């Protein structure tokens, strides 16, 4: 294991520091593998509510380490590598934790794609961002066209990707790509202020809100409203109103184990109902 990713935990917060300052924290294959491992560790942890990502030195992340790209292999190998990076970003985006990108300096290419998979992005006044892949003759693979279009729309995503310019932090906020710009030197304090706000909230409600917003934006209105309705019911249940009169309230599971009660009442009626060959042998558990 290299020292390219520094993992620290303070209470209920995990801090990930991209630690290749000599390469502007570019994502090497080994650093990317460490990030995937860290995201999966955070996913499985029950004592972590927040994940913060920052870069060592003067930059957040300069994207994929392009000098390593010849090592990626043939076209099929490249596709597999891109899908691996998509898995990395998807795992980050789907965490049931609050995720914060703390950006200073460069956040371009893959570095910008990391920020787009986070819930909140706080940047310093000197931060720069963009998608310069077009001038290398390549295309983004894990959010630069997809998440970006969902965040700032088709027209602006074309401008950012097809031109490849580098933009200042305040434009990212104006486009709703990032959340907040702070003075140089105030980044850590602003992250801590945001954590202070969240630590007094109902964590279950926050988890549900993140889930239904992320899922709802990918759905038509009526499907998204279904997520809202189910989340409302879950909120009622976790706040004590879980006993619905015509629900089993757990007895169905208990009766399945004993093969008595509701299971014995229901299964004989349903087992062969509208079955073409009712004489067929059924599994003993049936």
TrEMBL record:
SUPFAM superfamilies recorded for this chain? Answer: ClpP/crotonase
Q: Work out whether the entry's keyword set contains Chloroplast.
A: no
The catalytic activity of this protein is classed by the Enzyme Commission as: 4.2.1.55
- Does the record carry Glycoprotein as a key word? no
Q: Which GO terms describe its molecular function?
A: lyase activity
Residue span of the signal peptide, if any?
A: none
Q: Keyword annotations for this protein?
A: Lyase
The record's section on PROSITE patterns has: ENOYL_COA_HYDRATASE
- BP term (GO), one: fatty acid beta-oxidation
Q: Which domain of life is it from?
A: Bacteria
The record's similarity note reads:
Belongs to the enoyl-CoA hydratase/isomerase family.
Q: What is this protein called?
A: Putative 3-hydroxybutyryl-CoA dehydratase (Crotonase)
């Amino acid at each position: 294991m290299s020292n390219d990713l520094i993992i620290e935990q303070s209470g209920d917060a995990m801090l990930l520091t991209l630690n290749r300052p000599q390469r502007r924290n570019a994502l090497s294959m080994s650093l990317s593998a460490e990030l995937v491992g860290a995201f999966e560790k955070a996913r499985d942890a029950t004592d972590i509510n927040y994940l913060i990502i920052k870069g060592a030195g003067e930059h957040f992340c300069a994207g994929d380490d392009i000098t390593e790209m010849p090592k990626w292999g043939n076209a099929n190998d490249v596709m597999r590598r891109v899908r691996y990076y998509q898995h990395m970003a998807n795992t980050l985006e789907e965490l049931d934790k609050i995720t914060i990108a703390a950006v200073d300096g460069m956040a371009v290419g893959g570095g910008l794609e990391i920020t787009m998979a986070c819930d909140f992005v706080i940047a310093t006044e000197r931060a720069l961002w963009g998608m310069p892949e077009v001038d290398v003759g390549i295309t983004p693979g894990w959010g630069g066209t997809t998440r970006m279009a969902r965040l700032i729309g088709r027209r602006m995503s074309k401008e950012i990707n097809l031109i490849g310019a580098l933009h200042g932090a305040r434009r990212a906020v104006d486009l709703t790509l990032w959340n907040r710009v702070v003075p140089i030197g105030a980044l850590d304090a602003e992250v801590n202020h945001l954590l202070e706000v969240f630590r007094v909230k109902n964590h279950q409600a926050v988890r549900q809100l993140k889930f239904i917003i992320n899922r709802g934006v990918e759905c038509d209105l009526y499907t998204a409203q279904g997520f809202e309705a189910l989340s409302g019911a879950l909120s009622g249940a976790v706040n004590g109103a879980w006993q619905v009169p015509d629900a089993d309230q757990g007895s169905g599971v208990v009766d399945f184990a004993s093969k008595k009660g509701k299971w014995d009442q229901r299964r004989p009626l349903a087992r062969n109902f509208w079955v073409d060959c009712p004489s067929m042998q059924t599994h003993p558990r049936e």
